[in-house]
Amino acid sequence: MKKQVFAAALCAVLAGSIMGMNVSAEEPYTVGICQLVQHDALDAATQGFKDALVEKFGEDGVVFDEQNAQGDSNTCSTIVNSFVSNNVDLILANATPALQAAVAATDTIPILGTSVTEYGVALGLEDFDGTVGGNVSGTSDLAPLDDQAAMLQELFPDAEKVGLLYCSAEANSQYQVDTVKAALEGMGYTCTLYAFSDSNDLNAVVTTAASESDVLYVPTDNTAASNTEIINNVCLPAGVPIIAGEEGICAGCGVATLSISYYDLGVGTGDMAARILSGEEDISEMPIEYAPSFTKKYNAELCEELGVTVPDDYEAIAVADDAAEESTEAATEAVTE
């Protein structure tokens, strides 16, 4: 009788343990997403990130707390502090100010950045060797800046004055224009930096830049990306072409770019997150990852209006409706494969 009672008790304990394990295993991961602002590039990176995690864990295996700071770095801080209070399992910081806010908010919750150009510059790291360490890693949207300068020379060999237009509040934009300026000056161009502090003084700065330049260069810059209509409304009537740092800016106001796929960058970041959440890798040892490929693209409409002819190895940027359809198809494939 005692043996029967003991066996029954043991079975009950084991059953309870197994049930507890199932409940624990089925509990979804909670991921906080702080995106600086809404524009095509950052939107695509966020979507790719989410699709990669859903593909790994299933729709019921991960819950996203997705918030947009509407371009306000102070709002980024508010958002990530709420993630910390809610003890999320991982934070995605989409763009540099979001990353900076997340790093200031926690040194324990894993933080992955994306759409961040240069982590050493963004985080003020001296002698940055490619690995941030601690609770931070991520992906970079840095395109080969020397190659972007070479693109400008390829398309506009007879130009003399190049204006470099960027937001002074974005440290990574400063890094890009300084690098491209040095490369262009080495090619014989006269270069001038035109910095705007925010969207309020953008029109005035663009007007000055367009009047004093043969060609403009706009780096991967969140404020510029959110205000391409303002830039285009000045530069197109003035007949001044723009080489852009990424596809979204090029689609809005540029003639050509050497750009990455932000959706693919987001997928890569999601893959990193999956390895962290599943315990496969330690974030402190994960180096920053970069886009595997870059594509020469051009804005067919603006090239035609400005009389710019591009070589055959350039790919036309899809119009808005086609781009939306391709993004939807890519997202569907990523979830269903």
The stretches of 5 or more residues where confidence is low (pLDDT under 50) are 1-25, 321-337
Rg value: 23 Å
* Outline type: elongated
Percent in helix: 40-55%
On the 0 to 100 scale, the average pLDDT is 89
**Structural class, from helix and strand content?**
alpha/beta
| CATH homologous superfamily designation of the largest domain | Response regulator
Provide the CATH top-level class of the largest domain: Alpha Beta
CATH topology group of the largest domain? Rossmann fold
Which strand order spans the largest sheet, edge to edge or round the barrel?
Answer: 7-6-8-9-10-12-13
Count structural domains. Answer: 2
User: How many DSSP H or I helices?
Assistant: 14
Q: In the CATH hierarchy, what is the architecture of the largest domain at level 2? A: 3-Layer(aba) Sandwich
Query: What is the rounded distance between the termini?
Result: 55 Å
Q: In what range is the share of β-strand residues?
A: 15-25%
Q: Main beta sheet, described? A: 7 strands, mixed
Q: What's the total number of strands?
A: 13
Element-by-element helix/strand order: HEHEHEHEHEHEHEHEHHEHEHEEHEH
